[in-house]
UniProtKB/TrEMBL annotation:
CC per GO annotation: cytoplasm
Species assigned in the record: Candidatus Gottesmanbacteria bacterium RIFCSPHIGHO2_01_FULL_40_15
Taxonomic lineage of the native organism: Bacteria, Candidatus Gottesmaniibacteriota
The TACO1/YebC-like N-terminal domain, residue ranges: 5-77
Protein name: Probable transcriptional regulatory protein A2777_01045
Broad class of the protein's primary localization: cytoplasm
Length: 241
């Protein structure tokens, strides 16, 4: 019986892992399709920077090459473009924390219904367009490994044309105008700096202080549950921890 119990546990763990992997692959494929659609149908990552970012994201979750190619082929068929679109929802979470919920969906009614139900379970609600967006600004984000001092990196990113630099324990976060993201990244790559992550990002302009750990944990749980949905790509919150 113990052997059977062990096999059942291993099988269950594999099923959970496969399920998570499947969700990540679905999200990555959606990113590829949107990148090609917004890039006017261009399927070459050298000329379509958003596609290059989408492929990098797919590789970061170990999506097989054949899956990436299938997503590109699907996006290359113009008749599929009407099925899927990027939609950004604005919402308020607990304590009035603002949230930008970026989705890629082929069924807006399903997506908005799921998001609304999850928010309501946590005491949040969907907001009207513009009610939350002014708490954020859309920027380019480049995260790089720490290989220089702050002053040296600051000099580099200014030369690259970036707009801001933030330091954390292990990385630098470099912010750019969205139109300059590709240019700044290329400059950094040419100087030999290791790029760890690149994305278009909703950066909070003003944050909300929540001193209660129980509330911050509740907001973290809300964000995680939202991001577990197939249609939700990323959730941004203006929470100051």
């Amino acid at each position: 019986m113990s052997g059977h119990s062990k096999w059942s546990k291993v099988k269950h763990q594999k099923e959970v892992t496969d399920s998570v992997k499947g969700k990540l692959f679905t999200k990555a494929a959606s990113e590829i399709i949107i990148a090609i659609r917004e890039g006017g149908g261009h399927t070459d990552p050298e000329t379509n920077f958003k596609l290059r970012l989408a492929i990098e994201k797919a590789k970061s979750v170990n999506m097989p090459k054949e899956n990436i190619q299938r997503a590109i082929e699907r996006a290359n068929k113009a008749e599929n473009w009407g099925e899927i679109s990027e939609v950004i929802y604005e919402a308020f979470g607990p304590k009035g924390v603002g949230m930008m919920i970026r989705t890629i969906t082929d069924n807006r009614q399903r997506t908005v219904s799921e998001i609304k139900n999850i928010l309501e379970r946590f005491g949040g609600n969907l907001a009207t367009s513009g009610a939350v967006a002014h708490f954020f600004t859309r920027v380019g984000l480049i995260e790089v490994a720490k290989s220089k001092s702050y002053d040296e990196m600051l000099e580099t990113v200014i030369s690259a044309g970036a707009s801001d630099l933030k330091e954390s324990k292990e990385t630098f976060r470099i912010y750019t105008d969205t139109a300059d993201l590709h240019k700044v990244r290329e400059y950094l790559e040419k100087t030999g700096i290791e790029i760890k992550y690149t994305d278009l990002y909703f950066k909070p302009v003003s944050g909300i202080e929540v001193g209660d750990k129980e509330v911050t944990d509740k907001i973290d749980k809300l964000v995680n549950i939202l991001e577990e949905r197939d249609d939700v790509q990323k959730v941004y919150a203006n929470l100051n921890v």
